[in-house]
């Protein structure tokens, strides 16, 4: 199994499963009560310089409240996994290039600055073109596999993508021949984030979580990360978790903090709960075009509010949330629910 | 464009016709999604759609905005993880994928990472691979739907984000990509293009109604062959247009962009 | 990533992901109706010489009806993954050493001949000590990883077990140093069974499956196998599957046959449905002690019945199934439900 | 054995006492399960039990017959896959595991594969590793509960199924097994044994009431050291016995076997 070639990208984080084991050896495992506020969770578990990962899919089932709080608390020099990142990345980029230091120092890129069908983020582009953020290239699957390797407790996993491209060349992957078949493979190193955040539908006070709909990479991220902050739409009793253990997708011993945050994925979509607020997202995107406008926008919606509830109150409050719920559940049809 | 339909409608119809019944397609939002939905309503009722965020065989109530939003698994048979979808591609169960990019070269290689500059200091930073590199590596047939101009159809992509035939015949296999997979068709506002079996270079299969060979070559930054006999693209049928406008995209999210 | 050492065990099956892809390229993917009888499914999808894998956990959620049918149809020279195999292995061994040829030709062993707390199977020992069955050693996790490698479409996965033992020496694993960290790892080759069988709680006619309780290795086995036969306690409408897609754990395109087999895991346990029939299992074990007694036992319960329903009718019929259901749901307490 | 308890009851109590509160234990059926349940009812209410088939933190209504049966995830917080449990061990989150075997040597290596003969032609075929090799490789501390006799405690195991300290100091690490993991305690019907930090060989920590050092050595097929001062095992307390008999194992599945 000779090393055939290797990417020249920087490897952020430590893929050693031995060193990760030393951390996990001391991670608390008891069924204790971990409920706290988002402010406390970010204060205790997100440290300057951490490697940070975020669940969901860019603008679906994202932990917006934690992302805002990270920027609001002025966390600095984070490394970040830009795995299908869209609005989550937009939020983090608000901590760079606007006179408050640099929230982001390095990014493992699979997808950033883009907002899928919504366009490109002008401010994220400014940040990524500034030279102040280091980055290495990956793809969605290989970044997902890096989390999976860490979740499995091994230092790498093999994949059949990346090969032959500049994405490989500027990654930190390596190519080998399979010792069993001779097939050429890309090996991707494990990614153990220092801290990760997920937004889920339901969790008990210990951190046992339920997610409805697609799980993207959340199950692997929860297991890969050294510390995990979970926000949930609803706290539920441990008894309800135990009533149907097949529905639990993240076990409590992965989780360090549980925060109950209704509408926690707003303005992103939360499956079965509320659709994305396309109007607010357009407003956000438009505000980014000019730095002064963006500073004022952030002052109004992020720095000038004390918590996440105040944010969504400023975005239309309960009646807006009800409208987004109607859109999600297609209750407005046939008039077109995303107009 | 002829009276009766616009370029986007023609592109969606061309893409839909390429999808065989009983096959699987990993699609994104927009044109690919519209094409798959149209195919299901015409010749391919058993076409199975998958979205990389985890939706399998959804019954789409409307176009998803994101491949990760809840529309992308509406009444799906399964809502799973991204790794499960990608691994299904890697096992060889997914036939088609649709990709795009800021640049494409004669071998179907795509760039969605950066324009100009040297990595890591781009002139313009684009999103990066996302799932494109994976889908192009792991699905059997890559389709590209894009507008046709010299900025896009280039001799050499500034950054090879996503593999087409790489440097030509045998290059995918030599790199370790699965044998038998690779670029299949490119559908533009001017023509439908394929690849020469021997050289693996892009060539024109059919010209859209009213488009000349010279026009396509002028819009292409590399030497472009032709499969003889060069045919004309069949225009959309009235039934295709009706389904597209009434059922697939009544709010004109996709077909309104032209 | 030098090859440091390698097991001397035979590698059954082909770990090549390229050749598996060629098979999967032609596997049907449409949402067709796949409902058929167990007899038809075994006749069409299990071939002499196949590599065969079986879901569940030995005596829990096993596809007993298919295992019986394989022996009843006299399938020959199967290769088998003995992954936590107990009663399932007992059944397959009934096809060896009793004058009907050899159902089993080769076994990847993690756990065979044992029946956990129930003892050891005398007939399985006779078969495995006869020399007529080839075998290679593994462990539960590494055999699970071999399925997972195939499910992922890669020719191997790394693990941190097996190393340093005779289990490694007589396996077909290989040891390498991680190219990223230098950590020594065992690599285990992908295992793509030719055919696998699973018993699940609910499936629709296309093969979309729901499982309650622990999933053991079933999700990976379903994806790894080239052909899959599913038996289910209950067929459910496709509409019900679509109502809650988060509950589907095996997608239809993995599945070739769907058979509705109530009590299909009997005499094994089916979570939430019925407990194991310890009395019948003791009877089975006792009958194995002597080959003549065992032949008569198999004549009565396996060869002499036309289908699985006739089998459980001979084991006590509906009233016995009701009793096992009461045991499973703890309705007999506090008098002790497994007496 | 003294009046008031049998050897199995003493072994279960010894095993239970070794399990620290707030830690995780991957257990099997029988003694390990009884020990973990007793620990939860005495000093370790926050001990978390896992079963390799996928049950996490169940509230056991009775002893499971199989680690895969539905009792093993009764009112669990999660019912997952075997790979998920094993990967949790591999990540380093599981503190204890309980194993057994037909043979054990001075380094805690276990044989559960075959007795006599040469692989692949054994005199007696045993089940094989099952999950034992994995749990012994991946959990932090291995506990063994077994009867004590010369057939079991051997100079060299016929087949090294499951790793103890292999050939001695540094051998696990050299083989690639996770540093810091390894054999911890052996609880028999005669004594509680541990391992010498320097030599990694088994040694006696305490003798059960009424058992002599000579008796233990006579029942052991290898040279067996002693940790000084050699103590006597504390007999079960009346509260331990009450919990064990009334709550943990009222049907005497485990404690009836002695």
Short description:
Chain A has 339 residues and is an alpha/beta fold. Chain A contains 13 helices and twelve strands.
Descriptive overview:
- The complex is a heterotetramer, with two copies of chain A (339 residues) and two copies of chain B (258 residues).
- With 339 residues, chain A is an alpha/beta fold.
- Chain A has one domain (3-67, 137-336): Glutaconate Coenzyme A-transferase, CATH 3.40.1080.10.
- Chain A has 13 helices and twelve strands.
- Chain A has helices at 17-25, 38-45, 64-72, 87-93, 122-129, 140-152, 166-169, 218-224, 238-243, 278-288, 291-303, 308-314, 317-328, and strands at 3-6, 51-54, 78-82, 104-109, 134-137, 156-159, 174-177, 184-189, 195-203, 209-210, 227-235, 257-260.
- In chain A, the strands form two sheets. In chain A, strands 2, 3, 4, 5, 9, 10, 11 and 12 form an eight-stranded mixed sheet that branches.
- In chain A, helix 2 (38-45) crosses helix 3.
- The longest helix of chain A is centred in the middle third of the chain and has 13 residues, at 140-152.
- The relative contact order of chain A is 0.16.
- Mean pLDDT of chain A is 96; it is low at 335-339.
- Chain B is of the alpha/beta class and 258 residues long.
- Chain B has one domain (7-248): Glutaconate Coenzyme A-transferase (3-Layer(aba) Sandwich).
- Chain B has helices spanning 7-17, 31-41, 82-91, 132-138, 171-175, 213-218, 238-248, and strands spanning 24-26, 48-50, 55-56, 78-79, 96-99, 103-104, 110-111, 114-118, 121-125, 141-145, 182-187, 191-195, 202-207, 225-232.
- In chain B, the strands form four sheets. Chain B has an eight-stranded mixed sheet, with helices on both faces.
- The model of chain B has no long low-confidence stretch (mean pLDDT 95).
- Classes of the chains: A alpha/beta (339), B alpha/beta (258).
- The B-C interface holds B 21-24, 46, 48, 55-57, 59, 73, 75-80, 83, 87-93, 95, 138, 140, 178-180 and C 17-18, 20-25, 27-32, 150-154, 204, 206, 208, 223, 238, 241-243, 245-246, 248-249, 251-253.
